[in-house]
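Query structure, 373 tokens:
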């Protein structure tokens, strides 16, 4: 039986970013139940980086993470992690008054937004239906995240630092001998002084295996479809399209068009699959807001977005057992916030100074503490 300082449960973006930032400061093992790393939420994300439109705390996490994305450490990746995309915010006639109020508020936060005429919006995204549009503005600060490069950068960096990563090693049981956790996996028993719960949608059930009280983290299903674009549409220059009330979003993806009804349906943790009604809503929104007709759907899928009761991440030791550490509840923001939250969690685990970005931004780590529940 091998013994480690820290066992990280979960090989998604949360657990692997933490493993990367812990590096060689402690002996670390990552325990992942699936054969592939990043299989669930990480591998099914729409992978966008934005600085606005989320809660103030999540926007601050994005701002703190920005420098890592723009200037990753040497050897982390051979490609840019952020690819400029730009975004259009749109509304129909029913919502025009609220659209104008929304634009005024957002314009007060930045000078980068450009109010567009209907013709200008259609020129940017030629699939849009002018008869649907009543309001539109352009935000240049939308980027596509190169998720696989980010994930592999974390994995390779962690392994170079000596982190062990065990796949197909689901946790079956755990017990506390007073000094170490004894973790029974599908293949072996592992001993660790501290355990990090980075299991995404399984965070509460995982806590139960360790005798720790759940927090109330609930996974929610999010659906997406891929459809072919009309001939002549250049996906390289087409912006992401977001509806004012987040009823849907549309963005280029691998030469096709990704459409999501932005659903958030509570679900059981697992290998979630799309429901027919949500697929139908995605197609409906596309046909309503654009001139496209959905004749064939190339692919459908669903992923999990797991939220704590206040919809903020949970980072820190459990109130009822300080050797059980939460890194969960990252909602749909785990990838864009991973540099900030991975570094923060590492600092709390090893007792080092909080990352400078948090101090500069005035964001106290206690905002994310499990003790708030």
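Result returned for the query:
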């Amino acid at each position: 039986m091998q013994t480690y300082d820290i066992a990280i449960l979960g090989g998604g973006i949360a657990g692997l970013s933490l493993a990367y930032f812990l590096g060689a400061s402690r002996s670390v093992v990552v325990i992942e139940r699936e054969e592939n790393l990043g299989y669930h939420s990480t591998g099914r994300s729409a992978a966008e980086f934005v600085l606005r439109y989320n809660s103030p705390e999540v926007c601050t996490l994005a701002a703190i993470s920005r420098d890592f994305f723009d200037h990753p450490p040497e050897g982390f990746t051979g490609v840019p992690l952020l690819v400029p995309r730009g975004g259009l915010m749109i509304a129909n006639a029913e919502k025009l008054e609220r659209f104008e109020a929304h634009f005024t508020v957002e314009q007060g936060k930045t000078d980068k937004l450009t109010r567009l005429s209907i013709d200008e919006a259609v020129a940017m995204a030629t699939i849009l239906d002018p008869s649907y549009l009543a309001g539109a503005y352009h935000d240049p600060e939308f980027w596509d995240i190169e998720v696989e490069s980010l994930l592999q950068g974390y994995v390779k960096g962690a392994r170079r630092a000596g982190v062990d990563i065990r796949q197909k090693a689901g946790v079956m049981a755990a017990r506390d001998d007073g000094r170490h956790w004894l973790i029974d996996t599908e293949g072996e028993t592992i001993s660790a002084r501290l355990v990090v719960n980075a299991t995404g949608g399984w965070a509460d059930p995982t806590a139960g295996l360790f005798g720790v009280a759940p927090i109330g983290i609930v996974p929610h299903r999010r659906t997406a479809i891929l459809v072919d674009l009309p001939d002549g549409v250049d996906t390289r220059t087409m912006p992401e399209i977001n509806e004012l009330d987040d009823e849907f979003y549309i963005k280029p993806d691998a030469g096709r068009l990704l459409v999501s009804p932005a659903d958030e349906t509570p679900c059981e943790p697992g290998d979630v699959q799309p429901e027919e009604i949500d697929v139908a809503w995605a197609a409906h929104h596309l046909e309503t807001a654009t001139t496209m007709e959905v004749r064939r759907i190339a692919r459908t899928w669903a992923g999990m977005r797991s939220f704590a009761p206040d919809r903020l991440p949970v980072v820190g030791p459990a109130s009822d057992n300080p050797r059980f550490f939460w890194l969960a509840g990252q909602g749909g923001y785990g990838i864009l916030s991973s540099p900030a939250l991975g570094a923060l969690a590492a600092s709390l685990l090893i007792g080092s100074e909080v990352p400078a970005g948090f101090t500069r931004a005035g964001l106290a780590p206690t905002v994310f503490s499990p003790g708030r529940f």
